[in-house]
Amino acid sequence: MKNRTILISGAGIAGTALAYWLRRHGFTPTVVERASELREGGYKIDIRGAALDVVGRMGVLDEIRRQRTDVQGGSIVNAAGKRVASLDGDTFGGRGEEDAEILRGDLNRILYDLTKGEVEYLFGDAVSSATDTGAGVRVTFESGETRTFDLVVGADGLHSSTRALFFGPEEDYVRDLGYHVSIFSVPNHLDLDRWELTYVSPGRTALMYSTAKDTGAKAMFLFASEPLTYDHRDRARQQRLLADAYAQDAWEIPRLLGAMDSAPDFYFDSLSQVHMDRWSKGRVVLLGDAGYCASPASGQGTSLALVGAYVLAGELAAAGGDHEAGFDGYERELRHFAEQNQNLGPQNIKHMVLGGKWLIWFQMKMLRIMPYMPGKDRVITKILEPIHKAATAITLKSY
């Protein structure tokens, strides 16, 4: 086997899943993560289609289902908090019968525990500089340590430093969809029990939900915006932008925004996608959001990370560690799947953030009558068809 030592930048879903599969195929992965420890908690995510097959092959599907969010349903509320339309959890969340919903941090912990003790993790550190020498990649970490690895994988998200180091500036690849998202933990002051409430105004959506795994709740904000200027680590600036965007909105929004200062997990970013002609360069390759982010609006970021990790490790193993052949196989097998799931983002966001009062009125009326419609199951199946088609748009090999 060639190229046994592989550095993975990022200990998120993509990085930990890749570490598992590389170790299983006989490689020696090292994972470096800027955070001082594994990121816990987080928002709820879905695992669908081919990704269900991947976690099944990892032997963790039963555990994922055991730790499910168990959200029972959701309601649309008006400014006074009155529930004007309600649906069951799967319909409200756009899930099929077999899909699994879990908190992101819980899934990350499950994957990490599969590799703990077998894979080297470097928490509280990051790649400072790196050079592809042709025979390997010489890496200098922010801690000052220098090491050489056979290959490097950037699994470090939308704002990937690996991509910036080897492929060029972010603006060459990241496409803003014209919206921003913020998610953070809040007290469950409405005493929600595995339920989601959503408030919609022109160009803005806000929601709050509780899960079986969380004694508190999560607040999520989605709003249309022009490109905004801010540092991705400037939390104070991000919070001001969010507060300004919702300054005129009612419902529970003022109270939810009041909780963001003390939230341990405040997240704010543009809804963006990453589009690249090639995911690899020399001995460096990108995985998940770093190479083909579909945006949270797609609902498929986690599934892309899981399937991408499986395919990348498998193609490298099938090529005997030959990185050129392995990276080629990875692109060949995954490209169509990634593109199909990226197509969901721009489509879905139009239904998540509504542009005008008439459109809001029409959608609320449709949601109110949906539970009573003849053939409603057929209607729901038709609505879910695009995401099911994208989620199954790959036939997984057995490596």
From TrEMBL:
SUPFAM superfamilies: FAD/NAD(P)-binding domain. Transmembrane segments: none annotated. Residues 5-341 form the FAD-binding domain. It holds the Pfam family FAD_binding_3. The keyword Mitochondrion does not apply. Keywords: Monooxygenase, Oxidoreductase. InterPro entries: FAD-bd, FAD/NAD-bd_sf, FAD_aromatic-hydroxylase. GO terms for molecular function: monooxygenase activity. This is FAD-dependent monooxygenase. It comes from Sphaerisporangium flaviroseum. The lineage of its organism: Bacteria, Bacillati, Actinomycetota, Actinomycetes, Streptosporangiales.
